[in-house]
Each structure stands twice: as structure tokens, then as C-alpha cells.
Write a structure and sequence with these properties.
The complex is a heterodimer of chains A (344) and B (296). By secondary structure, chain A is mainly alpha-helical. Chain A contains ten helices and six strands, in the order H-H-H-H-H-H-H-H-E-E-E-E-E-H-E-H. The two termini of chain A are 19 Å apart. Chain B is elongated, with a radius of gyration of 21 Å. The chains are: A mainly alpha (344), B alpha/beta (296). Chains A and B meet through helix 1 and helix 4 of A and helix 2, strand 5, helix 3 and helix 5 of B.
Chain lengths: 344, 296
């Protein structure tokens, strides 16, 4: 059975190996240069304290490959579910060859075990390898990424570490199960893609924020969390404070909410308005932004943020991968049950 | 004599429709069994139940003393060639034989190679490029080389031209003589079965109408032609299978173990096709009976 499964699968496996090989070669050649560029840049900026600007410049230079690689790792599980998972059983059902193979001297359970096991293992290995290679390559960029693109950012989190393996296993088994139920290849592929997309959107939006209880804390306003201020010169004046999705002292944190609260504790939104004179005093046009922010701080305004700090990256990776492994196991169990009881 | 297949009150339901119901048959070993009936009569369902591809909804089925597809040992004893003789179109003929070797402990590699060579199947060709007849022969070879005790074939010749049909059935016959196994094959054409079968099951409208050895069936069924008569007035031992009436004449197909003495009848022998048609006719006649009574 292993021979047959491999014979049916070897074409796409070889193709995948070739693509991964090329990717690995490109990353292996460019990775060390990227790392040394980062190291020398950090050494230089540490002396004159201009590391903020170095981060921005460094990240901007490599933003395109960074985004492209992230996208590749995000898409790979979906592709595995679509092109390896959905056709695995459906192709046999459409051609009627399941009747041929089910009547050799092996049980259906064994047949499905080998098919799911072998192809599933290759899927997880390929995606895992790709994910870990990209994680390694992107390490300097992840350290210097802008607010919304750090390791904990929803878009990037799913393309780093071990989570892609969980996604791939789930997408693959999802494709197999949907294919078994739908029995036709193209509808099965479409449905697999739709379901997987829903799960992948629901995870970061609805589930991941609650994997651990987020930290809520108040922070003084400063350069780290104020994006800018806007002056309103009509009607005696007011200052609009625009907050960043960042908290001071916790670089790379995943900020779920960031709001301005006034001295009485009422929230005023991410773009809060502060009633302070803009014609004279610290917030007058002659003063700089820093003095105005200091004045707003003195009046008692604070940033109230809910966030997950960066050091939760690995706990989150393990928990999320575990959730996907459970989903995968559930679907696999169902597909065995369905093959034994219902499929014909 | 041992049975290859025993079914008691066997039934299979798809949704609300019974594809097969109240099927009770006992097929003794050592026969080539023809399963005949119109399209949609439940032939494929019965064969799939026997091969373990389907689970029964009602009743029980035993094949060679075991539950169909109950485990590797049971699977090894029963060969099944599905309708349209599916093969892997991407695999070559040689790879199909390799598949057989890998997946069957009792695989007879010599038989498979010899058959492929004798049929002239190009072993390097992909199965997708073979003709319908060649594909059917390849599927049959896979079934035979497994060395089953029972080989089940579902409409194996349906898609073949007359010449390929004859070759296929001939190959099957030679194999049964050589290796002594039982065969159950289905067809909606009696002519296909007439040459090869010595046991017949007629399946109409998801029910078994008659089952038995062909010789015995032919010797106990007769066509009676004579003056018009009500079927109810026939002797008790004569079971009417089908009846046709004109204004003055009645034609009955009856089943009886006793000789027919009534001089009013002209008695003719039936051939297999007449017999099968009589049973199919009966089913149609059952539907029409109320109409006939109104006319009288």
C-alpha cells in the first residue's frame, strides 16, 4: 500500500521538493548577508542612539521579500489542502478505482491510514520546513519590523515557528474529509478553500486573543505610543492625540486595543481629544510635540492598552498548534468512521 | 455441499428507496452463477454487498462462511471486478501487476504475467490508453491472479463489443476450469450468460424472482399453449410464472416438478432467455393485473 500511495503521489511530491529546494537555496545564500547587515547596523546605531531610524531603513529595504515569504508560508497549507487533501480520495471515487483497491487483500482502514499518514506526513514536513526556513531567514527583519508587522502580528504569527505545520495538517485532513463527503473534485476543492479560509480568519480574530488572558495596563504618553498630535485652532482649541498600536517598554507586543483615557478614567478612543489651549502654553505652535505631550501627561491623560507581550510568542505557537492538531485528529477520526461505515 | 454465498432477508436501502429487499439465496460452491435482471434491479447492490463494498440495511449475508470484507483474510478469498472495470489510468499495466503483488498475499505472479502476455497487453502502456476490452481484461487479470475462491464480476462485458465479449467470457471460462473457483457475474443480457452459467438468479424490481441450477430450471419450466383458460383453473402443482391471453388462446409459462398430462395443452421447452423474460414479464403483469380484471 505504501508503494501504491507513493506511486500515485510521487509526481507532486517531487515537484514540491524541487520548489522547496530552490527556496532553501535562495534563503541559504541571502540569509547570512541579511543577518550580518543587521548585526553591523545595530553595532553602528548603538553608539549614536539612532537605532529607531536604522530599524525603519533596514526593514524598508527588505519589505518586499519579507511580505512575499510570509505570504508563501501562509498560502502553503491552503494549497496542500486544495491540491493534496481534496483529491486524495475524491480522485479515486470519481474514477471508481476505490472499488479496485478496496478489493485487494487490505482493509479500508489500512488503505486510509497509509494514504493519510504518508501524504499527510509529507505535507506537514514540507510546510514545517518552509515555515522554519522563513522564520530563520526573517529573524533580523522580525526584530526590526514596524508595529503591525512584528512576530505577534496576526499576519506574521501564522507564518512563523511551528504553527504552519498545524495549519497544513488541518488543511490536508479537511480537504480529505470534504472530498469524501462531496465526492467531486472541483466542488470539494472550492469548499475546502472556503472552509479553511473561514477557520484561518476566525482563529486570529476570535480565538487567538483569548488563548491567554491579555494584559491591561495604563502607560504614560510618549514617543513610543503617540503617533502624532493634531491641533484644532477653532473655538479656543483642542489637541487630537493619535495613539500607535504599541506600548512603551514592550516592543513587539500584540496590542489588541489602545485608547486614550482622561483623568477621570473615561475612554476617549484611539484618537482622543484633549481640551488644552493651542494658542498659548506648552501646546502653542511655538512649542514642540514633546512639550505638548508632556503637558497632556501632566493633565492626567494616559494610554490604556490591552496587549499580549512578545514573550508569549512561543506559548501561543504551542497552544495554537495544539488546537489545530486536535481539529486534525477529530477530522481524521471522522474520515475513518465515514470510510468504514458510509463510503461506497 | 458448501455455500459460497448465503443471504437471509438481505436488504439495502438508499434513502427511502429499497435497492434490494427480502433477498434470500443460497449459492452452492463450484458454480458459475449468472445474476440477471433489468437495469436498476439491484444487481450491483447485491454484488457490492457480497464483496463488502456496502453494508446491508437489513438481513444478513455470509460469503465463504465469513462477513464480506470482514478482514484481510476474507478480502483475499473474494475477488471483485466492479462495473466498468476501473483501473488506475495513470499506472502502467506492469505497475498494476506490481500493485497486485504488493496488496495480495496469495498473488499468483506467474498467472498474471502469463495472462498479460497471452492477451498481448503492452506492459509499458498506461492503463488509460488501453481499449475498453483491454482494460476489462486487465481488471479481470487482477481479479484472477489474486487466486480467490469466489470471483464476483459486475457487468464485466457491458462496455465491450461482441468480439471482446466473447474473448473475455472465454478467458474467464478457461480460468474457472483451470483454477476451480466459483464465479458470480451479472448482466442485463441473457445471451452473455447463456454460454457460461450453470446457475441462474433472476432479480427484478429489487427482489429475487428465481434462483437455481440452469438445467433444473429448464427442466421444470414449460410453456403451455391452448384454448383460453383462467390461470386459477390450472392444477395446484403448476405455478404460473407468466400468462398471456388472446380472445381464444392462452399461453402460460409454468413451473412444475410433475409431468403435464392435460392433452389440451401444447407443451414446449423454454430456453434460458424465454425463462428470464417470463420472470420479468411476471413482474410487469403483476402491475397490470387489476386492469385485466376490469376488462373481463
Amino acid at each position: 500500500m505504501i508503494w501504491l500511495t507513493w506511486r500515485q503521489f510521487r509526481g507532486s511530491a517531487v515537484m514540491m521538493a524541487a520548489v522547496l529546494g530552490v527556496l532553501a537555496a535562495v534563503l541559504a545564500v541571502t540569509g547570512p548577508g541579511l543577518a550580518s547587515g543587521y548585526a553591523s547596523g545595530i553595532a553602528a546605531c548603538a553608539q549614536d542612539g539612532s537605532c529607531g531610524r536604522f530599524y525603519d531603513r533596514f526593514f524598508d529595504t527588505y519589505q518586499l521579500p519579507f511580505m512575499a515569504l510570509t505570504l508563501v508560508v501562509l498560502l502553503l497549507p491552503a494549497l496542500a489542502g486544495l491540491f493534496w487533501g481534496a483529491p486524495l480520495i475524491t480522485r479515486e471515487l470519481e474514477a471508481g478505482t476505490h472499488l479496485l483497491v478496496w478489493n485487494q487483500s487490505i482493509t479500508r482502514a489500512r488503505w486510509l491510514t497509509v494514504k493519510l499518514g504518508l501524504v499527510g506526513l509529507v505535507t506537514v514536513a514540507a510546510t514545517g520546513l518552509c515555515g522554519l526556513m522563513v522564520t530563520w531567514w526573517s529573524d533580523p527583519l522580525d526584530k526590526s519590523a514596524a508595529d503591525g508587522l512584528g512576530l505577534m502580528a496576526p499576519l506574521v504569527f501564522g507564518a512563523r515557528g511551528i504553527a504552519p505545520m498545524g495549519y497544513a495538517a488541518f488543511a490536508f485532513v479537511l480537504g480529505v474529509t470534504v472530498g469524501m463527503l462531496v465526492r467531486r473534485m472541483l466542488p470539494a476543492m472550492a469548499l475546502t478553500l472556503a472552509l479553511f479560509a473561514v477557520v484561518q480568519l476566525a482563529m486570529p480574530m476570535l480565538v487567538r486573543p483569548h488563548l491567554m488572558s491579555p494584559v491591561t495596563a495604563s502607560f504614560e504618553l510618549g514617543q513610543a505610543n503617540v503617533d502624532g498630535i493634531g491641533m484644532d485652532r477653532d473655538e479656543g482649541g483642542a489637541v487630537h492625540v493619535m495613539l500607535r498600536s504599541a506600548v512603551p517598554g514592550h516592543a513587539g507586543a500584540w496590542v489588541l486595543s489602545s485608547e486614550l483615557v482622561d483623568p477621570s478614567g473615561r475612554t476617549a478612543g484611539a484618537e482622543g481629544t484633549v481640551g488644552v489651549s493651542t494658542t498659548s502654553g506648552p501646546c502653542a505652535p511655538s512649542g514642540g510635540m514633546d512639550t505638548c505631550v508632556a503637558e497632556i501627561n501632566r493633565l492626567g491623560y494616559r494610554q490604556q492598552a490591552t496587549y499580549h507581550p512578545l514573550d508569549r510568542f512561543w506559548p501561543f505557537q504551542w497552544i495554537e498548534t495544539g488546537i489545530y492538531v486536535l481539529l486534525t485528529a477529530g477530522l481524521a477520526w471522522f474520515s475513518f468512521w465515514w470510510t468504514r461505515r458510509r463510503l461506497s | 455441499m458448501t455455500s459460497v454465498l448465503q443471504a437471509q432477508e438481505l436488504g439495502k436501502k438508499y434513502g427511502k428507496r429499497w435497492a434490494l429487499r427480502e433477498c434470500t439465496v443460497d449459492i452452492p460452491a463450484g458454480h458459475v452463477v449468472g445474476l440477471v435482471g433489468p437495469n436498476g434491479a439491484g444487481k450491483t447492490t447485491l454484488l457490492k454487498l457480497a464483496a463488502g463494498q456496502l453494508e446491508p440495511t437489513a438481513g444478513a449475508i455470509t460469503v465463504l462462511g465469513g462477513r464480506p470484507a470482514g478482514g484481510p483474510a476474507q478480502l483475499a478469498k473474494v475477488g471483485f471486478v466492479a462495473q466498468d472495470t476501473p483501473v488506475y489510468s495513470g499506472l502502467t499495466v506492469a505497475e498494476h501487476l506490481r500493485l497486485g503483488t504488493r496488496l495480495n498475499p496469495r498473488w499468483d505472479a506467474g498467472l498474471a504475467r502469463e495472462r498479460i502476455a497471452r492477451l498481448g497487453l503492452p506492459s509499458g502502456h498506461r492503463a488509460g490508453k488501453l481499449s475498453g476490452g483491454q482494460r476489462a481484461q486487465l481488471a479481470l487479470t487482477l481479479g484472477l491472479a489474486k487466486r480467490p475462491e469466489l470471483l464476483i464480476l459486475d457487468e464485466p462485458v457491458a462496455s465491450l463489443d461482441p468480439l471482446a465479449r466473447r474473448e473475455f467470457l472465454q478467458g474467464l471460462m478457461e480460468a474457472t476450469v483451470e483454477h476451480e473457483f466459483s464465479v458470480v457475474l451479472s448482466s442485463h443480457l441473457v445471451a452473455d450468460l447463456e454460454r457460461v452459467c450453470d446457475f441462474l438468479i433472476v432479480l427484478v424490481d429489487s427482489r429475487v424472482q428465481v434462483a437455481g441450477e440452469v438445467d433444473r430450471l429448464l427442466s421444470t419450466h414449460h410453456r403451455l399453449t391452448g384454448p383460453r383458460r383462467d390461470p386459477a383453473r390450472l392444477p395446484a402443482g403448476q405455478q404460473v410464472i407468466s400468462a398471456r391471453h388472446t380472445d381464444r388462446q392462452s399461453t402460460f409459462v409454468i413451473r412444475t416438478d410433475a409431468p403435464i398430462h392435460d392433452p389440451a395443452w401444447t407443451v414446449t421447452r423454454l430456453d434460458l432467455e424465454d425463462l428470464v423474460l417470463a420472470y420479468m414479464d411476471r413482474y410487469v403483469a403483476d402491475d397490470r393485473r387489476p386492469v385485466l380484471e376490469v376488462r373481463r
